[in-house]
Write a structure and sequence with these properties.
mainly alpha, single chain, 288 residues, ABC transporter involved in vitamin B12 uptake, BtuC, two-stranded antiparallel ribbon
Length: 288
């Protein structure tokens, strides 16, 4: 029983990371119909750049701030220079076009990271050093607890913002009916840029928080984004909270597979099952 509980705890820790990326992707699609698969690369680049900056003598808080600001500025610049012109052109294939444009950004960031940092694997030191906590024979990693706490706080703030503030309701309205939002004076462009900035910043922060537990290389972000995308797709791509819950389930499944079958099949089995679900229900996005 203790082994099962330990695997569940570890799986939920992994699931939080997957769920956050699913949350980000579903949130973006809900607001502006953009599937930004480059969020994984924002996380990866944030970790690798922070490690490089601290190795060069930059204080960790300043390095974190530099990477966070750089990610937000890059997201805003890419939106203005690349995504916005495509969105302004009416097209029945706009969602696919935007997906390919964010996929292109993902590939470019991977190439730049490979050129700058090589194929080495990088990780930050734990933010809370010390022995793991033990509760009834179950080991709780301090760093994962930080991630869980941050994600829980962020979800609470996001829920309060969207449900109880005027700007939050306007943000939601843009995703429900863009023309209706324009008719009442709400700017979809402004809220899309806000969503892009928040998603980029959140990806960087989560990447930095989990980097002491999950080491990053130049290609680590892509798997995170794809797993998050499948979780968000199962959730309908319009429900961030449900995407987070699906991500938790995926992490739990990965941990149980790794513990009872083989660690080599963790990601393979989870991705295969999620892909099979999406293929079995191709209208899962339209169902919401």
């Amino acid at each position: 029983m203790s082994t099962f509980l330990q695997l569940c705890v570890s799986g939920l820790g992994q699931g939080v990371v997957i769920g956050v990326f699913g949350f980000v992707l579903a949130f973006l699609f809900q607001v502006c119909k953009v599937i930004n698969v480059a969020v994984g690369e924002f996380a990866m680049f944030g970790v690798l750049a922070t490690v490089a900056l601290t190795a060069a003598g930059v204080a960790l808080p300043l390095a974190l701030l530099i990477c966070l600001v750089a990610a937000v500025l890059l997201a805003l610049l890419y939106d203005r220079a690349v995504l916005a012109p495509t969105i302004r052109r009416p097209s029945a294939e706009r969602i696919l076009q935007l997906f390919l444009l964010t996929f292109a950004l993902s590939m470019v960031l991977q190439g730049v990271a490979l050129r700058m940092f090589g194929r080495d694997v990088f990780a930050l030191d734990p933010f809370l050093p010390g022995e793991p906590l033990r509760v009834g024979g179950v080991v709780l990693d301090r760093q994962i607890l930080i991630v869980v706490g941050f994600v829980g706080l962020f979800c609470l703030v996001a829920w309060l913002f969207t449900r109880h503030t005027l700007h939050g309701k306007a943000l939601t309205a843009c995703g429900i009916n863009e023309r209706g939002a324009l008719a009442v004076g709400v700017s979809p462009d402004g809220y899309r840029r806000l969503a892009m900035a928040v998603s980029a910043g959140l990806a960087v922060v989560v990447g930095l928080l989990v980097s002491p537990v999950i080491a990053f290389a130049y290609n680590s972000g892509f798997l995170l984004a794809m797993t998050g995308l499948l979780a968000a797709t199962i959730a309908g791509l319009r429900d961030p909270v449900r995407a987070l819950l699906v991500g938790l389930g995926v992490g739990l499944l990965q941990s149980l597979v790794g513990g009872y079958i083989s660690g080599h099949y963790q990601s393979v089995v989870a991705l295969a099952l999620m892909t099979a679900y999406v293929l079995a229900k191709p209208n899962v996005v339209a169902a919401r």
